[in-house]
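Q: Hi! First time asking for a complex rather than a single chain. Here are the components, and I think there are two in total. Is that enough to go on?
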Amino acid sequence: MIVAEKKPIEEIIEQVEDCEKLLILGCNECVTVCEAGGKKEVGVLASALRMYFLNQGKEVRIDEVTLERQCDHEYLEEIREVADQYDAIVSLACGVGVQFVAEKYHSQRVYPGVNTCFLGATEQRGLWTERCQACGTCILAYTAGICPISRCAKRLLNGPCGGSSNGKCEINPELDCAWQLIIDRLKALGRLEDYEKLLEIKDWSTDRAGGPRKVIREDVQI
Amino acid sequence: MTDTARSRLQRILSEGHLAVTSECGPPRGSDPEAIKTKAEIIKDYVDAVNITDNQTSVTRLCSLASCIHLKLMGIEPVLQMVTRDRNRIAIQSDILGAASFDIPNILCLSGDHQSFGDSAQGQNVHDLDSMQLIQTVRLMRDEGKFLGGAEVKRPPNMFVGAAANPFADPFEIRVPRLAKKIAAGAEFIQTQCIYNLDKFEAWMKGVCDRGLDEKVHILAGVTPFKSAGMAKFMKNRVPGMDVPDEVVKRMADTPKEKQAEEGINICVESIERLKSVKGVHGFHIMAIEWEQKVPEIVERAGLSPRPKID
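A: Yes, that's all I need. Here is the structure of the assembled complex.
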C-alpha cells in the first residue's frame, strides 16, 4: 500500500488560515490503514482546526467527508454537488488522491494534509516500512524476493557494499542490510550459489527516470 | 589479465614485483597545490597514487582534475570513481575525459552514502553499481563500445580495479563477492585497511582455494594509526572496519608522545607479515592526511626503491 504521514498542523493552517468554509476529505484506502488520512484522522484534524480557529476568535465551518477512494472518478463524484461551497479542500489522501481531487475540481483550492512516503507494508501497528519503489521492471525473481532498489540505501543490484555490519546498514544501525536479507534467504532456499550471478545494468526507463508513466490495458477498457 | 594498458602499476604487477600504491584526498577548495604537495612527498616511494572521489561524501576538488594535475607532474594516478554522483552518461564521459589525459588506472567504487557527508539532503544516483562500473570500463576498453552500443573512438586504455572489504558482513560471501568483481572484469583489488590479520589471512585462503589469486592482483590495504584515539574511532565508528582489541590496547598502552611511532610500527609489521601471504601482490598505503609518513613506511617495510619500469 501507499504509506503516508500526517502533516504538521501548522503547515495546514498556513494554507487555510484565510478560509471560512473548509472540507476535510479523507480516503478509506491506504491512508486509513496507515492511520494518516482515514475517517478517524479526518475527525482529529477537523477538531484541531476548529479549536485553532475558535482560539483565533474566527468562525470557520469545517465539514468532514471520507470517500471510499480519492483516486477514482466514481467516488470523487460524490462531492460534486458540495465541492464549490468550500473555500478550500484539505485532502488527507496520498499525493495521487490530492491531485485527482485538484484535477476534478479545477477551480477549487486543494491542499495536501499528509506527506506521501513510500510503498510499504504494516510490520506492526504503528510501524510501516518500505518495500517497493515502483521501478516498473520487477527484479524480485533474481534477489530472493527482497528488493534492493527499495531496501538498500544505495539501491545496489550487486551488493552488499563494504558498509554492511552485523546485518545492518552503515547509514542506520536500526536498518537491515537488504543484501544480508537476500543472502540469508538465498541460503534458506539452498541457492546461495545464485549470489554470484551478476545482475545486469538496469533499464531505468520504466522507472521515474523515463518520465511520467502510464499503464494502458485496451482489453479492459470500456 | 590483459597487458594492454600503459599502466605502470599493471606492468609492475605483471612482472611479479610487489606493487605499492598510496592515496591522496583532494582539498576542499580549488588550490591545486594542496594535492600536488602531497603527491610530491610520496611520488618516489609508490608506483601509483589513488585520488579519492569525494570520500565520505564530503564535497572536494574532483578526482579527475586532481589526477590530471598528478599526470602533468609525471606521477601515475589511479582515478577513483564512485557511482553515487554520476549517471551512466557522466560516468562514460568522465572515463573518456580521463583517457584523453592517458590516466591509466581506474578504481570502481559505489561510494559512501551521502548521509555521511556535507550534502546529506542531496540525491544519490547509483544508476550503476560498482560491479557494473567495472563492466562499463571493460566494455569501453575491450570492445570499444559505449553502453548504448555505439563505437568509442580511441577507447580508454585503463587498468581496472575494485575495492574489497574482507571484514564486512556477511563474511561467507566475501570470497564469492570478490569472484563476482573478477567476473565483472576487475584486474586489481585494493582492500579495506587490514588490522585483523588473522581474518584477512582466512579470507585470502578462501581466495586462493578458488584460484582467484591467479585472476586478480590483490593489494593489501594498510593505514597507520596516528594515535590511540584514531584506533578507537576506526574500531567503533567506521562501518566495515575490523580493529581487534589487542591492536587498540597496544596503541592505548603506548605513551601519547610515542603513539604515532607505534602506529607506524604496527603498519610496518603488518606489511612484513602480509608479504608472505599467498596472493598478496602489493600494498595500498592509505596514510590519511599523513602522507609524509609514507616514505618511512615504504622504506622500513623494505619496499624501497621502487622498481624502474620503462
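A: The first strand of chain B starts at residue 19 and ends at 24. Let me know if you'd like any chain examined more closely.
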